[in-house]
Amino acid sequence: MITALVPERQLRTHRLPGPPEATMYQASNPLIVQSDHTVLLELASPGYEAARDQLSRFAELEKSPEHVHTYRISPLSLWNAAASGMQAQGIVAALAEYGKYELPENVRREILDQMSRYGRIKLTKEADRLLLGADDDALLTEILHHPKLQGMLLERRGPFAAVVEASQRGNLKQALIKIGYPVEDLAGYVPGEHLEIALRDITLAGLPLVLRDYQREAVAVFHADGSARGGSGVIVLPCGAGKTVVGLAVMAAVDAHTLILTPNTVAVRQWIHEIIDKTAIDPASIGEYTGALKQVRPVTVATYQTLTYRRKGAGMPHLSLLGAQDWGLIIYDEVHLLPAPVFRATADIQARRRLGLTATLIREDGHADEVFSLIGPKKVDVPWKDLEAQGWIATAECTEVRVAMSPALRMDYALADQRLKYGIAASNPDKMAVIERLLERHAADTVLIIGQYMAQLQTIADHFDLPLITGETPVRRREALYQQLRDGEIHRLVVSKVANFSIDLPDANVAIQVSGTFGSRQEEAQRLGRILRPKAEGIQAHFYSLVSRDSLDQDFGAARQRFLTEQGYRYHIVYAEELEAIHGQALETA
User: Fold this and answer.
1) pLDDT higher than threshold 60 for residue 89
2) Where do the domains of the chain lie, and which CATH numbers do they carry?
3) Is the pLDDT of residue 6 over 50?
4) pLDDT tens, 270-304?
5) How confident is the model at residue 19 (pLDDT cuts 50, 70, 90)?
């Protein structure tokens, strides 16, 4: 008897409850929910912040101009909300509470329907068989006959279950989410080879190690006491909020050989440093797997780039690292950057516990559903402003400075091919004068100047006689410069996009962004994150984004700001010529 697969959700799934009774819609409320599943949020409303905090849990921000922001309620955003414990009626009630007008009936029904889909289909294990269970006979029949699922399901076992080809566990989850049915995977995990992992009470640096409440909760939700309900998923925390410590605490809960995948070699070495500093693991049991070293040890830290290295005529030989040990846990640091080949390889290792860590689930390639199905759903998402209010991350002021282009540059821009326009505008040489003024204003601060274009960054470094880090900078030189910044030997550093991720610079409190990767929201979040670590004596962080007026640079800047706007940050917009006159008073009250 397959007791885990009885249709316990059938009545709740097919009887949609009515709207909340006695709802009072008010013209002063901040939300307008539209029948196309978009939600308009008015910033001038007194209920703006409370409504925004609710929306960020189950909707995606699409546009964020000055007065009205546009969110979209999507199936994936609702499934992630369901996986993190939200209830459909709670979402409906929130939209009713903050809505100007009555919630459109089709939106209400879509919320209830999509939320109910999470958990209707489950993967479980009985003896040595992998089973797919549905809460409805007709639904399982539909799945068994879907052309995209042929070869993944072997035979039917009663009205509510079918046997799954074990090697197809990941592919089945991918295929099902594509047709609108997210799977709740309860099939469990192999324990992996045992490794005793304990967190230190006092780090080697002599500091007490005590998990913060939100870190402890994140570990508990992910691990779920070792049950099949835990063990896979994504934890979303702001940069500077201690994602690495959460990862180490999960390792201690699992007590098994662990593979950690990171964006770059500097991040690998920072992870190794943190493991040695904060756990009792023998350093001899920790391996670096990068372009420089290929050590496979009980705890191995590797880069995505090394894993996806392609040798001519030999495919990607280092992907075999995923099966090189009996891993009990795989950690995907900055999971939103996961390359497609690693996704495909992850489909084959669904029996391993998988933890994704990130500051944002935004993927510019649109593959967020792959993270959901192959790494796991969002388990924890702590709002940035909540942690700022509690003092765990720095208070940040965001300013967009609009810089005019000279008549000559304007003409070059006007005549340029469309694909070259952004680079011309982003590299506007008149940004140099703004940088100089900002460096004068923040003479006592630690400043990062961040950009996309190498020639622009080299010009800035040469003009101000500052050290420069790019992708061409040797890893040893990068680490030395980062350490000098931490030690206070230098206070200015020019960096390319290689510094977007996993760089620990706790004293940096000012970032000047001179150019970005088109409209990348994830990049904006990561760059702000470089300066969000708590500061001594509550020093405020400042993030400046320099854009050329009336150009693609300004348009892409607005697109990049969307995620941070959703998190509660407002960009104060000034023109370069106004910067001196209005900086003091205006930015303090923005």
Assistant:
1) yes
2) 3-117 (no CATH), 121-185 (3.30.70), 213-382 (3.40.50.300), 388-589 (3.40.50.300)
3) no
4) 899 999 999 999 999 999 999 889 999 999 999 98
5) very low
Q: What are phi and psi of 386, to 5 degrees?
A: -65, -45
Q: Tell which residue, 431, 430, 428, 429, has the closest CA to residue 551.
A: 428
CB 405 within 8 A of CB 390: no
- Residue-wise pLDDT for 200-245, tens only, equals 999 998 999 999 999 999 999 999 999 988 999 999 888 778 899 9
What is the DSSP track for 81-118? HHHTT--HHHHHHHHHHHBSSPPPHHHHHHHHHHHHHT
Which has more pLDDT, 154 or 164?
Answer: 164
pLDDT band at 17 (very low <50, low <70, confident <90, very high): very low
CB contact at 8 A, 120 and 146: no
The Cα–Cα gap between 263 and 308 comes to 12
What letter represents residue 277's amino acid? D
And the tokens for 346?
A: 């992850």
Q: Which two tokens stand for residue 37?
A: 């599943």
| Rounded Cα–Cα distance for residues 342 and 74 (Å) | 26
Measured between alpha carbons, how far is 264 from 245 in angstroms, rounded to an integer? 19
CB atoms near residue 28 (< 10 Å):
10
Closest-CA residue to 184 (of 241, 134, 128):
134
Q: Any idea what the Cα angle at residue 371 is, between residues 366 and 373, rounded to 5°?
A: 115
* Sequence-ordered list of residues with C-beta below 8 angstroms from that of 534, at least 6 positions apart, any chain: 240, 391, 392, 393, 394, 506
3-state secondary structure of 26: coil
Where does residue 159 rank: exposed (0-12), middle (13-18), buried (19+ CB within 10 A)?
A: middle
Q: Is 442 exposed, middle or buried (0-12, 13-18, 19+ CB in 10 A)?
A: middle
